[in-house]
């Protein structure tokens, strides 16, 4: 283990039972942070996951199953974190869902759910975490936006709207706390091979009659010049940087890690 720069801090990572959220939670735990996990999945598997990570890195871990579309459940999760660990020092808003359809065909209930989970949940967690961070004069809010917080893609109106909104929300939160030790930044990944993206790969393979590997290459070739997926481990390392003293004056950025997608 390195110097464990986050020893004694507590991080709450939404949507952290798999994919990007899990990668970030592991990276923060490696640096000594206690972790509050959140997300869906098999209860026994989740218990094993957070117990194993706690033992591996010598940190305290806990789990709350708040539905991130429900403000009352978000409030219960934040209260749980306060009771268990005395508050949240690092808040990672990562929970997200996706649906692909043209605007005229987009189900209204899907639009509402995507905006609630991908955008509004970050408002609720932030408003509840900020007073404690401000009292300590130290805090980190990291919003997982997307390259779709910077550019658009056809068929993803709700997701793109939510992620652009999250980038804007990040900037305002950063500005409101600019004279404090609390920072807020957004990470904007390109294609990451998460369960959400794997489903898009599977759908493409089935639709176009190609192998899964061919479907992955086709997906990457459209948008991501590097031809490689971003990894949860790379995103975790960036989150650790945002939490380090080197990032004290990194405020309100939308940092894309996207294999060159937004550079085109």
TrEMBL record:
Lineage of origin: Bacteria, Pseudomonadati, Pseudomonadota, Betaproteobacteria, Burkholderiales
Organism of origin: Massilia aerilata
Domain of life per record: Bacteria
Family label: Belongs to the short-chain dehydrogenases/reductases (SDR) family.
Name of the protein: 3-hydroxybutyrate dehydrogenase
